[in-house]
Amino acid sequence: MFVSHSPIKYFLAPNFSTYKYEGSRGQYSILHTHSLFLVTLTKRKSNKHLSTAMDIDSTAQDKARLFAGAWGRVKALPGKLKAKVTSTAKSIKKLGQDDPRRLTHSLKVGLALTLVSLLYYARPIYDGFGVSGMWAVLTVVVVFEFTVGGTLSKSLNRGFATFLAGALGLGADYFASLFGKNGEPIVLGILVFLLAAAATFSRFFPRIKARYDYGVLIFILTFSLVAVSGYRVNELVVLAHQRLSTIIMGGATCMLISISVCPVWAGEDLHKAIASNLEKLATYLEGFGGVYFQSSEIDGMGTGKSFPQGYKSILNSKSSEESLANFARWEPGHGRFRLRHPWKHYLKIGALARQCAYQIEAINGCIGSDHIHGSEEFKGKIEGSCTRMSAECGKTLKALAKSMKTMTDPYSSANTHVENSKAAMKDLKFALKAASLENADLAAILPAATVGSILVEIVKCVEKISEAVHELSQLAHFEKETVEPTVSPEKPPQLLHRGIIQPVLDGDSTANDNVVITIHEIISTDSPENGKACDQHQVPKPGQKIEAL
């Protein structure tokens, strides 16, 4: 029997000594002893079974989640693969569109490798060179560069270094053989040590590092191989001859294809890069004055982010310019560039352009940084001269860039703007002297004064750039700039126009507040031209005072 007291059910055991009840929290027992109802509640140990069931459920749920996640990744794999392929294709397309010469260079390398592979494919040629034909393939891989100068530099360095190292290796082997079998390896080891150490040390010289570093490296490699292998190889002369011949064939193939098939000249790239850098500086300077002095009135221009930032690429252009100049020295005369073109002078112009770019980088931080706390009154006093300095410097650099592109002497066109910028610089000095700064707030005028000081340095730097470009035009024999003479009609002498001046009487009390000009003589009106001019203009009488408005 059982007694139900919800939510607990009581079960009467057959021996009437134990009552059991079942609740929501498990099964409990009620023990009956004699006539006394001593009730003891004991919870059965069913937690173990419950936790086991819960563990099974959680494990199943984890497996289901893992399976669902894996299946989701598998389903998303085609879409991700498609997006990756599309992104890669767009990157390849953009890379080719930015410079189509890259695609041409890749095709030229493939053509060169195909040609030198004939040393292996053609049986008659293979019988003559044997396994040494592989050196031609390796030569093409390591010496074919993007520019003609780079290819010529590596090919000639590799060829001369191989020839010199091979000859010295043969000499070292013959010299070591004079000491007998026991002394030969010792002498060879000493010679390899001395020449390798000396050649490695020579790589630290800046001139050798810049132009012949690859050749020195090949010299060390070839000399070591020839000298060491000569101890075991009997036909050392044949081995050296085969290697030198295959390297010459590989290098000649690279040079021929690089020059004849869509050549990329390092000198031309350097010339265009310097002209482009000058244009970037000019673009910034021409618009700086208006942006800086109007930054407090124009929203969104305070940070200078929307202003042209092309000059930033000039800051780190030193290594690329030096590399192009080094390769250009190896190139033959081409186009408008002669054999001994003054490529070194381009580095001087590039260094001055970077100096100007660093000044611009400093002045760029002033855009919008002081329009809140700066002195607008002081900025107004120097606005005109600073704007003229910036604009004239920009015009100077633009004229220099144009002259470099056309390879004409820029002196006549750029010199005018240089003089104008120097005149504006003098005006700035006069404006600073005229400004009363005794009681001025130093913190308020300091930003604008800094801008003026940097602009003065930029004017000096632009003048140096103009002189350097003019010197380059003289060394490279640029064409003289042709300026077409403009004939303007002769203008009649201009007299004071009616309405600009007003006669002032001697007794006029307001004359003290005006500028007074006294005319002591007038132009004769006897001639017809002067008479016509007098009819159109008012001529004051002698001794009469006039007021300039």
TrEMBL record:
Q: Name one GO cellular component term.
A: membrane
Any stretches that span the bilayer, and where are they?
Answer: 103-122, 128-148, 160-180, 186-205, 212-232, 244-266
Using the UniProt annotation, give all residue ranges assigned to the region (Disordered): 527-549
For this protein, the record's InterPro entries field holds: ALMT
Query: What domain of life does the native source organism fall in?
Result: Eukaryota
Give compartment(s).
Membrane
Membrane topology classification: Multi-pass membrane protein
Keywords carried by this UniProt record: Ion channel, Ion transport, Membrane, Transmembrane, Transmembrane helix, Transport
What is a biological process (GO) this protein takes part in?
Answer: malate transport
Pfam families in alphabetical order: ALMT
The main place the protein resides is: membrane
The UniProt family comment states:
Belongs to the aromatic acid exporter (TC 2.A.85) family.
Q: What is this protein called?
A: Aluminum-activated malate transporter 8-like
Q: Which organism is it from?
A: Gossypium tomentosum
